[in-house]
Amino acid sequence: MFTFGSPNIKKLTAQSDVQGLIQALGYQRNEKVRREAAKALGLLQDAQAVEPLMAALKDENGDVR
């Protein structure tokens, strides 16, 4: 996954890297990363993100949900 620090959501979004954002959505070390990844995936409106976003509705953090 992300070996050197947290994912760069701005970079992943700029590159329209849906798979990278989906991975970031599961980044357990930081709820801000998960929240921003969810927002970015929503904006990109890619069908690949539907199931991961549905799973994020069960996130322990209300801001991510």
So what's the overall shape? globular
Assign the structural class, choosing from mainly alpha, mainly beta, alpha/beta, alpha+beta, or little secondary structure.
Answer: mainly alpha
Helix percent reads 40-55%
Largest sheet: none
Averaging pLDDT over every residue, what do you get?
A: 94
Estimated radius of gyration = 11 Å
If you had to describe this structure to a student in words, what would you say it looks like?
- The protein is an all-alpha fold and 65 residues long.
- α2 packs antiparallel against α3.
- The chain is globular, with a radius of gyration of 11 Å.
- 28% of the residues are buried.
Summarize the structure.
The protein is mostly helical and 65 residues long.
Question: Which key features would you list for this structure?
Answer:
65 residues; mainly alpha; single chain; 4 helices
Furnish the topology, listing elements before pairings.
Elements: H1 9-14, H2 18-25, H3 31-44, H4 50-56
Helix pairs in contact: 2-3
